[in-house]
Amino acid sequence: MSTTWHVLGAGSLGTLWATRLARAGLPVRLVLRNEARMQAYRASGGLTLVEQGQTQRYPVPGETADSPEPIKRLLLACKAYDAEAAVASVAHRLDAESELILLQNGLGSQDAVANRVPQARCISASSTEGAFRDGDWRVVFAGHGYTWLGDPAHPVAPFWLDDLSAAGIPHAWSADILTRLWRKLALNCAINPLTVLYHCKNGGLQEHRCEVATLCAELTDLLERCGQPAAAEDLQPEVERVIQATAANYSSMHQDVANRRRTEISYLLGHACKAARRHELAIPHLEQLRQRLIAHLDNLGLPSD
C-alpha cells in the first residue's frame, strides 16, 4: 500500500496538492493545528477543489498535530514564517525514515526546518502553480505551472515522484534546486514589493520599467556574489516576461496585504539584504525598497518581520 501523504498547511498550495492526490486515489491526511480547527474541518465535509468552473469535494481525513502516529511523508505547505513552528508541532512523529517536502516561498525557512528535525530528510520544492482560496477549505486552481523538487544533501530522486505523476502534478527532480530557489527569490524581490507599494497588478509594473531594471541589476550582482551565477543569468528579461505573462494577476504579497495577512518579507527581501550584508555587497536600491515596504506595512498595522 502507498505511504500516506500528510499535508500540514491548508492554504492554497497545500489544499491543491491534497485534493489532487486524493482524486488519484492516494492516501492523504490533513494535519490541523488543534481540536478547534479539527471540528471546523469536520463540519465542512472535506476539501473542495474548483477547477475550470467545476467544483468537487474530497473527504480527506483530518487529524491534529499532536496525534501520536508516525509520519513518513509530510508536505509542509504553510507560510515561510510558520514553517519552523509547524514542523516542531509534529517533530515527535518524525524519524530517520521521514521525508519532508518544503513548499515555502523565499529562502531561510528551509534551513530552519532542517535544523529543527535533523533526523528527517528535507526536500525543497519550488512551484509556479497558481491557486487561491475563495473560502475555508476551498481552493481555486488558477493557473497550471510546474514544480521542481530537489535535495542538495542527497541528489537521488525519491521513488514517490510516481505519486505526483498519478495525481497530475507536473514536476521534475532538480539537481540544482538551490539555483531554482534563488532564481524565484530574485523574481519575487523584483516584482512583489513594488506591486504592494504601487497597489497594482503585476502588469502595472510596466509603467515602472527603470525601477525594475535597477532592482534586477542589483539582484544579478547579489546572485553572482552568493555563488549562484546560473540564477543570475538573463534575470531582467525573465522578470519582464513574468510581468507580461501575469499582467492580470495580483502578486502573492499584494494578496497578503489586501487580506491583511502577514507577508513573507523576511524570507524574500529580508533574506536578500541579509545575504548582501554578509558578502559586504552594496545594494542600496533593494535596501531602500525593503525600508519603504516596512514603513508601508507599519502604517497599515501589519507585521513587518
Topology:
Layout lengths: L4 E4 L3 H12 L4 E5 L2 H10 L2 E5 L2 E5 L3 E3 L8 E4 L6 H7 L9 E4 L6 H8 L4 E7 L2 E6 L2 E6 L3 E4 L10 H6 L4 E3 L3 H21 L11 H17 L3 H4 L2 H11 L6 H7 L10 H10 L5 H17 L5
Parallel strand pairs: 1-2, 1-6, 2-5, 3-10, 6-7, 7-8, 11-12
Antiparallel strand pairs: 3-4, 8-11, 9-10
Helix pairs in contact: 3-4, 6-7, 6-9, 6-10, 6-12, 11-12
Helicity level, as a percent range? 40-55%
Helices and strands, in N-to-C order?
Answer: EHEHEEEEHEHEEEEHEHHHHHHH
Q: Which superfamily, in CATH terms, is the homologous superfamily of the largest domain?
A: NAD(P)-binding Rossmann-like Domain
Number of strands: 12
Total count of domains: 2
Shape: globular
The CATH topology of the largest domain comes to Rossmann fold
Detailed description of the structure:
By secondary structure, the protein is of the alpha/beta class. The model has no long low-confidence stretch (mean pLDDT 96). Helix 6 (177-197) runs antiparallel to helix 7 (209-225). It is built from twelve helices and twelve strands. Strands 5-2-1-6-7-8-11-12 form an eight-stranded mixed β-sheet, with helices on both faces. Strands 4-3-10-9 form a four-stranded mixed β-sheet, covered by helices on one side. Helix 3 (83-89) links the parallel strand 6 (73-76) and strand 7 (99-102).
